[in-house]
Design a protein that fits this description.
- A five-stranded antiparallel beta sheet has the order 12-1-2-13-14, covered by helices on one side. A five-stranded antiparallel beta sheet has the order 5-6-9-10-11, covered by helices on one side.
- By secondary structure, it is an alpha+beta fold.
- Strand 7 and strand 8 form a beta hairpin.
- It contains seven helices and 14 strands.
- It has a single domain, classed as Glutamine Phosphoribosylpyrophosphate, subunit 1, domain 1.
- The longest helix has 21 residues.
- Helices cover about 30% and strands about 30% of the residues.
- The protein starts with a strand and ends in a 5-residue tail after the last strand.
Length: about 270
């Protein structure tokens, strides 16, 4: 499992992710008989943030961490070594076009590995690709879910102005509780207690308006965005460390930034240790 955070401020983007990858299945019992389904192994050195060659572009992944024997990290590396990807330069870079290319590549690999499984039953891998298109002052971000959801713009501009803020993916219940002051399961509890859908919608909006922590992303420096992203990932890791259940998020935290001037830059990476 994963927790991934994206923060967009005026000076650029920050990406943060944990390093846990979970293997689910049935452990072998005495006599070689399979036991019940569950988590059989968690590794803590998975890579979830990548740069595409030397471009001002970052990719982040969550969900299924592999297509059978191929990790998402190895597939991203294969993608960046395609001739079509090598032809992309800072002078002709369009993030929207690159998002379509990686979507088509990953869907083709998913089809090759899981062709006998209907799309709705295949492992789902989330991808976010972000960076600076040619001659653009502010970055663009696109998210997708392989193989079911094509790329869509994250935080599109509003009234011609950049839309600053944060987005998070994966195991995010702790972040939602902290930021919005609620747990989305609350509404299932209320519905089960007899509160109808007509009341739940306005109630959810009211809770979000009155309990949400306001964060001034519009004026936030890049250094503070780095601290904020790291805090949200650490919060999630601590939640899984201390609450009963498998430790589905954990390991070293990787942090990277993407800015117009400096491009992709590692802030903290387990690869550098």
């Amino acid at each position: 499992m994963s927790v991934c955070v994206l923060v967009k401020v005026g000076e650029g983007l920050v990406l943060a992710a944990d390093s846990a990858t979970t293997i689910a299945g049935a452990a072998m019992g005495p006599g070689g008989q399979p036991g019940p389904q569950g988590v059989i192994k968690v590794f803590f050195n998975a890579t979830k943030i990548f740069q595409i060659r030397d471009l001002p572009v970052a990719v982040m992944t969550w969900g299924a961490g592999a297509f059978q024997s191929r990790t998402i990290a190895s597939l991203v590396e294969e993608f960046e070594n395609l001739e079509a990807t090598k032809a992309v330069t800072r002078e002709n870079l369009e993030i929207s076009d690159l998002s379509k290319q990686i979507w088509e590549f990953m869907c083709a690999r998913s089809e090759a590995f899981f062709k006998d499984i209907p799309i709705e039953g295949r492992p789902k891998t989330g991808l976010l690709i972000c960076g600076y298109s040619k001659q653009q002052f502010f970055p663009e971000e696109f998210s997708m879910m392989i193989p079911s959801n094509a790329p869509s713009r994250v935080r599109p501009d509003q009234n011609g102005q950049p839309n600053f803020g944060a987005a998070w993916y994966g195991m995010v219940d702790a972040i939602v509780r902290f930021h919005y002051g609620r747990d989305d399961k609350l509404f299932d509890v209320l519905k089960g207690s007899g509160i109808g859908d007509a009341q739940l919608g306005p109630l959810k909006d009211k809770i979000s308006q009155e309990l949400q922590y306001p964060v001034l992303f519009q004026a936030m420096p890049l250094g503070d965005a780095i601290d904020y992203a790291r805090f949200l990932v650490d919060l999630t890791i601590a939640r899984f460390r201390f609450v009963i259940g498998a430790e589905l998020c954990g390991g070293p935290v990787d942090l990277a930034s993407v800015s117009r001037k400096e491009g992709f830059k590692w802030i903290q990476s387990k690869r550098l240790r």
